[in-house]
Amino acid sequence: MVQLQALEDFGAASGAGADPFASVETTFAFTSSGPAAILNQIAYTKAQPYPEITKNFTDIQPVLFNTMRITNLTNITIDYLFGTATFANNATLLAQILSIAETTFKPLQRNYSTGITLQAVPKSITSKAALTGGNSLGLDPEDGNVIWMDFTLIWSNEADDVALNAATETFLTQTVQYTKSQGQYHSFLYSNYALPSQNPIASYGLTNQATLRAVSKIYDPNQVFQKQVPGGFKLYRN
Question: What is the pTM of this model?
Answer without folding.
Answer: 0.70
